[in-house]
Amino acid sequence: MKKLFCLLSVILSLLCSAESSAEVYSRAQISPAANYLSYPAMRAFIERMVQRGFDRNYLVQTFSRIRRDEKILSSAANPAEKKPWRNYRPIFLNETRIRSGVNFWNMHQQALQAATQRYGVPAEYIVAIIGVETLYGRNTGKYNVLRSLTTLAMDFPKRSAFYLSELEHYFQLIREEGLLNPMLLRGSYAGAMGLGQFISSSYRKFAIDFNGDGHRDLWNPEDAIGSVANYFYHHGWQRGADVAVPALLGRDIPGDLVSTDASKPRLLLPLLQQYGVQALGKINSTHVGLLELFGASGVEYWITGDNFYVITRYNHSPKYAMAVFQLAQEIKNRKNLQSINKKKGI
Ligand SMILES: [Ca+2]
């Protein structure tokens, strides 16, 4: 009897997989609220994924359960990076984030040291990235990653090509990592995952197993530390080079030397000095740029280096990179102070 039952289920599953795509779609669309299966872009996506070896039934059933999330769309239309620097800076440069950064560093000292040694990225930058992204893992995001990526791929035209590609990477990631249920992973409204908030394509390319347990898991602090350092390494981080330094402008300089975006540094320091730009500290970098920001006390100028540009490969806003740079310095100074006080027995 048991054998007969098994045989019947095999025949049934064969029959199911043989049904046409039209039947699969019409059955999945019975649910009353409109779902993404009615979008031509979704049908084209599913066809593409079938060609990549994914099962049509599995995809149709999965997407029949996904509904658009308006909150995701409004967050995507109003990112924090739209704020001027004077309002953006206090979100990240505050006592909680500095103190918790020192604690995170103390807690994961070994992994941070190993990452710095292997990839050349100082610990304070790895800590600051994880601090800016998720407050050291306290806020890795509660959104269903699949719902975020689908909503943005289908209903956010400005970046739909990017999110369509990330949606494909997401399914590939799920398959490669041996995860059975694509609904389980949680992340930011934009589908970023883990302590360092890696989007699917970055997860696939740059996440590493840094604690040697055989799995790359970006919700694990040690794997996240190694992965952030690996990400910077692959984007050209220069060991020992500086990131940025404040600058004073002596007289008018050509407007095209000043940038307000994350363009690649292409100047040499002596040229800026010829125009009377004064660096208020040391900046060791092959190329430099001159960045203008609108801070709490007015216009600020910064000489930025190649490594500043590397930080913008994580998030293309110069305000983001500046927040990471300044938070890194604050955390490092606080940690040094803590060590000095410890030695003095304070
Ligand atoms: Ca691991």
Quick recap of the structure?
The chain has 346 residues and is of the alpha+beta class.
Would you mind describing this structure in some detail?
The longest helix is centred in the last third of the chain and has 27 residues, at 318-344. The protein starts with a helix and ends with a helix. With 346 residues, it is an alpha+beta fold. It has helices at 2-18, 21-28, 40-51, 56-64, 70-77, 85-92, 95-107, 109-119, 123-134, 145-155, 160-176, 200-206, 221-234, 269-274, 306-312, 318-344; strands at 143-144, 186-187, 244-249, 258-259, 277-279, 288-295, 298-305. The radius of gyration is 24 Å and the shape is globular. It has a domain at 21-67. The strands form two sheets. The protein has a five-stranded mixed sheet. It has a two-stranded antiparallel sheet with strand order 1-2. The site of calcium ion (CA) has 8 residues, from loops.
